[in-house]
Amino acid sequence: MIDLLNPILFGGLFAVAAPVIIHLLHRRKLKRVDWGAMRFLLEMLAKRRRRLFVDELLLMLIRVLVIACIAFAMLRPAVHRRYGGSNGAALSRQGRTAAVLLVDDSVSSMAGRAQPAFDAMKRLGLAYLESLAPGDEASLLLMSQLGAPPSDPVFDIEGLKANLLSLKPSYVATDIPALMEAGLDQLKRHINPGAELVLLTDGRKDGWHEEDKVRWDGLRERLRGPTNATPGTRLRPQVIALTPASVGFEENLAITAVGMDRTLVSAGRPGGIRVTVRNFGIQSSRDVTVQMMVNGEVTGTKPLAIPAGGQQEAIFNYTFPEPGSYAVEASLLNHQDLLPADDRRVVSIQVEASLPVLLVDDTPSPGLENKLGFLQDALDPETGQHGPFHVTRISLVQLTASILQDYRVVVLGDARVLEPSMVDALERFVVGGGGILVGLGPDTDREMVNRYWARNGAGFLPCPLAEAVTPAISPIPAAINLGHPVFDGFGARSDEAWKEAKVRSYFKLDTKQIKASDMDPLLTLDNGDLLVAERRRGLGLVTLVATSLNADWTDLPLQAAYVPLMRGIVGHLGSFIIPPRNLEPGGQIIYARAKDPAKGLRAEDPSGKPLKLTLASWEGRDAVVSEPLMEPGVYVLHDPNQPKPIYYAVAVSPAESALAPISDREVARHFEEGLSLIHTPEQAAESLFPARRLSVELWKWFLLAALGLMFGEAWLTRRETAPATGRNG
């Protein structure tokens, strides 16, 4: 079977018509003139004309064949033949190979019993490189360097082997679909016709993202290529997965989470620091001691007994003495397992003097009157007494774009109308990291809200509004998302807190055009209608309450549950520090400052070495950005304008700690077809031996034929133009 490896150049074959056209246009046009002396030469001229006609036809044919040979050489035809070896698993290679090695150097590859899985992965990679022949080209892509500029492929396979041997595992999380997408993009930089995507992974399930069907469907479509594409070419590359032989479930103990027991952390107020430790193994209960440190100082230790497959929480009571940034670190003492990287976790916690909240009311007045009186009393019952919330209440006409920059949360209470400029300002506020709480009510103009605030899900409101309803029997709220931080202030029996809170009227929320993954329902009514919904917009959050925030439409403000609910919502909306300070490996310090963003700033890594900071732009603001932070630990930023250092925390992804194996069947299911799985170097040598190239490219032979024909054409041309006496001797 013959395939064309460069079919896009098929149009070049039409160039063979050029010699024919030129021949027809330049045919000798003879004019007949009767001349008596020439009649004796007629017989000789007839013979000469026949010979010239044959020579011209032969010359034209040679020129056509020269162009055809060059055109076919550019099409790169290849003959495929069957290999008659004993191993039916041998791979077919389409001529010279373009190989992209995709190395999953994530943190889980550090784990292993006798040796890290990464060492076995490198041996498999070396066995694969041994199968490449001179003229093959290869690229090396690392999971930890997906964001780096792409590099050109190399033909120096020995140099690539040395590069592979020098690699070490990183602390980044696995993302197999992203790695495969990057490999397909890298193949575009190669020139060889044969194409192989070689995935070196540790054989563990983390990072395959089976739940992300949209990404996998798109990836399979790219791998499948056009219908008529030849397997093993750049249009339909061969996928080879090199994974060490599975050893089953690994025993591992990990700190998977460290955080506060509340959304808003205030200075001088006692709080609890929660440390979650999980046993990913199958052994019986394991005893371990958890140590807590704040800004490098030990604040306590606690023992835990964790059953197989279970988890336990250790809660450390702590009072942060003053506002500012704190580095909180939890670690497992005197503990060794297969993955030490997850035995320690750090977080950066911002302690507030009080959270600045802006309440926007139609006509604000003191007390519980008007739209946001109950909410103000719930957040700041003792005005001016330095509580966790610093509340400012203004009228709708006082709301300007410039005032928003002084607040972390804005609350709109049954607002009648917003100027287009303010709608735009609120959208930019939430996209830049702010929080917005919207309450509805009898003055809400549904048509105006849907047209300008919601815009079919593209505005700052989480979703459009349907009709307002007043059921004959008033429904009551029911907590449906007790794991959400908003409900941290409620006890175990939080459902009883809503029994007397009747909702007389409310707007139904139209969520049909909103993806379920984009919307976070916090509270629903017992009739199934959504009451409180949250949605991320850019870097910020918006929470929508379908009823009023006062007692116009509901009895909720009169119930004890109202205060912890509103404090939980507002505290959660304002709890996010933007740009973020809790990062995964590969993240960057981003620090935005209004004036002189880089003046006097300096940063240090966990070992105390200085970090390079560069000027950049973030969300339209001047900022400084660090180099990627690859090591877990605490990074410190010093700003001469701040009384205390600012802490950034880098911790490994908890998803890397499970160490659950992925079966060959599960791997194959992701790719559907065209996948080769190899687990040992011996298997790689048997399946990938260079002698098993089943394709022979013919372009060299076509070029040689063209060259030979060109010599023949030169000889014929010289023969035709030579004097007759010279030819006749």
Could you characterize the architecture of this molecule?
- α7 (373-379) links the parallel β14 and β15.
- α1 runs antiparallel to α2 (42-75) and α2 (42-75) runs antiparallel to α13 (699-721).
- With 729 residues, the chain is an alpha/beta fold.
- It is elongated.
- The chain contains 14 helices and 33 strands.
Tell me what the CATH architecture of the largest domain is: 3-Layer(aba) Sandwich
In terms of DSSP E residues, the strand content is: 25-35%
CATH class of the largest domain: Alpha Beta
- The total tally of domains equals 4
Shape type: elongated
Share of residues in helices: 10-25%
Give the termini separation.
51 Å
CATH topology of the largest domain: Rossmann fold
Largest sheet: 8 strands, mixed
Would you count the extended β strands for me?
33
Spatial ordering of strands, largest sheet: 15-14-16-17-23-22-21-19
Any descriptors?
729 residues; alpha/beta; Rossmann fold; 4 domains; 8-stranded mixed β-sheet; 33 strands; 24% helix; disordered C terminus
Short structural summary:
This protein is α/β, with parallel strands linked by helices and 729 residues long. Helix 8 links the parallel strand 16 and strand 17 (435-439).
Please describe the topology of this protein.
Blueprint: E1 2-4, H1 17-25, H2 42-75, E2 77-80, E3 97-103, H3 117-130, E4 137-142, H4 157-165, H5 176-187, E5 194-200, H6 213-224, E6 238-242, E7 253-260, E8 271-279, E9 286-294, E10 297-306, E11 311-318, E12 324-333, E13 344-351, E14 355-361, H7 373-379, E15 389-395, E16 409-413, H8 420-431, E17 435-439, H9 446-454, E18 465-469, E19 477-479, E20 506-509, E21 519-525, E22 530-537, E23 540-545, H10 562-573, E24 582-583, E25 590-592, E26 602-604, E27 610-611, E28 613-618, E29 621-626, E30 633-638, E31 646-650, H11 664-671, E32 675-678, H12 681-688, E33 695-697, H13 699-721, H14 724-728
